[in-house]
Specification:
The protein is α/β, with parallel strands linked by helices. It has ten helices and 14 strands. It has helices spanning 40-47, 67-70, 88-98, 103-116, 132-144, 162-177, 189-195, 213-219, 258-268, 281-289, and strands spanning 2-11, 14-24, 29-33, 55-60, 63-64, 73-76, 150-154, 182-185, 198-203, 206-211, 223-229, 242-247, 250-254, 270-277. Strand 7 (150-154), helix 6 and strand 8 (182-185) form a beta-alpha-beta unit. Helix 3 packs across helix 4 and helix 3 (88-98) packs parallel to helix 5. The longest helix has 16 residues, at 162-177. It is elongated, with a radius of gyration of 24 Å.
Length: 290
C-alpha cells in the first residue's frame, strides 16, 4: 500500500501543498483530479523523489519510501521524458535495464509491450518521428516494461485519440486487477469516473474530497427530476425548496424529501418520471473546488 501523509511544500511565497494525504491500496486505481496548478504533479514528484517535501512523508508497505523501493515504481511524467533521437525499442529496453532487468529479459518485454500498445511495427523508428499520442504510448511502455510494483502516472491520457485511450485504459485496468496500486491524474473526468475505485480532488494545495465515486456522489447535491402530465406550472409553489423547469412538463426539485415532493406531484397530475439525478464527477469537482 502506498500512503502519502500530511505533505507540505512551498515554492517561495507560494504554498503548493498544504497537509495533503492519500492512500492507494493494492489492486486499486486512484484518480487524482484538480485544476492546473492545484498540486497534483508536485505530489507525484515528491512520491517519486524528484522533489523533497517541507513536511510529511511517503510510505510504502508501512515504512518510509526509500530509493530501492522507488526503483520498483513505474513513473510517467506529464512532460515527455524520452530521448528523441533514440530508437523506440532500444529506449524501452534501456529503461528496463536501468530498473535491473537483464538485456535479454528487457528485449523480450519490450517486444511484448510494443505489440500490446500497437507499436510493433515502429520499434526501429526514432521517438522524434512519432506523433505525440504514440510518444505517449512509448512513455507508458517505459513505465511498464520492468513489471513495476506501483504505477504513478501524470496525465497519461493527454493527447491520445479514442482508440489509444481505450488501449491505455485497458492496460491500467489489467495492472490494477493484477494487484498493482495505480495512481493517475487526469482532466478527463469521465475516464476517472469510469476507471477509478477512489478519487481525490485537490484544490489550491488542499485535498478537498477523497472517496469512492459513490461516496462523493452521496456528498454531492442530488436533485429530484419530476415529469408530470397536465400539471399546473405553479403546482410546486407550496414546496419549501427551490424548483426549476427548463422543459415543459418537467421539473428539477432541490430537495431530499422525496415523499413530500411525490405527494405534491401526484396531486398535480399524472407522474411519468420521478427520481434523483445523481451528480456526475464533473458536478462534484465543481462543488468541491468552489
Amino acid at each position: 500500500m502506498l500512503e502519502i501523509r500530511n505533505l507540505r511544500k512551498r515554492f517561495g511565497d507560494k504554498v503548493a501543498l498544504d497537509d495533503v494525504s492519500l492512500t492507494v491500496e493494492p489492486g486499486r486505481m486512484f484518480g487524482f483530479v484538480g485544476a492546473n496548478g492545484a498540486g497534483k504533479t508536485t505530489t507525484m514528484r515528491i512520491a517519486m523523489g524528484v522533489l523533497t517535501s517541507d513536511a510529511g512523508e511517503v510510505l510504502w508497505q508501512g515504512t518510509p519510501l526509500a530509493f530501492e523501493s522507488r526503483a520498483s515504481f513505474g513513473y510517467m511524467p506529464e512532460e515527455r521524458g524520452l530521448y528523441p533521437k533514440m530508437r523506440i525499442a532500444d529506449q524501452i529496453a534501456y529503461f528496463g535495464e536501468l530498473h535491473g532487468m537483464t538485456s535479454a529479459a528487457a528485449k523480450t518485454a519490450t517486444g511484448e509491450w510494443l505489440e500490446r500498445l500497437g507499436l510493433a511495427d515502429r520499434g526501429r523508428d526514432f521517438v522524434q518521428d512519432l506523433s505525440l499520442g504514440n510518444q505517449q504510448r512509448v512513455q507508458l511502455a517505459v513505465s511498464l516494461v520492468f513489471d513495476p510494483k506501483v504505477l504513478i502516472l501524470d496525465e497519461p491520457f493527454s493527447g491520445l485519440d479514442p482508440l489509444a485511450v481505450d488501449t491505455m485504459a485497458s492496460v491500467l485496468s489489467e495492472r490494477s486487477a493484477a494487484g498493482v496500486p495505480v495512481i493517475f491524474s487526469s482532466h478527463q473526468l469521465d475516464l476517472v469516473e469510469r476507471l477509478c475505485d477512489t478519487v481525490g480532488i485537490i484544490s489550491a494545495g488542499h485535498m478537498v474530497a477523497v472517496g469512492t465515486v459513490d461516496e462523493l456522489r452521496r456528498r454531492g447535491n442530488r436533485r429530484l427530476r419530476v415529469t408530470i402530465e397536465g400539471a399546473n406550472p405553479n403546482w410546486a409553489d407550496s414546496l419549501p425548496c427551490q424548483v426549476s423547469s427548463d422543459v415543459e412538463g418537467e421539473w428539477v426539485v432541490d430537495s431530499d424529501d422525496d415523499q413530500t415532493v411525490l405527494a405534491a406531484a401526484m396531486a398535480a397530475g399524472r407522474v411519468t418520471r420521478f427520481g434523483f439525478d445523481e451528480p456526475s464527477l464533473v458536478d462534484i469537482f465543481r462543488e468541491a473546488s468552489s
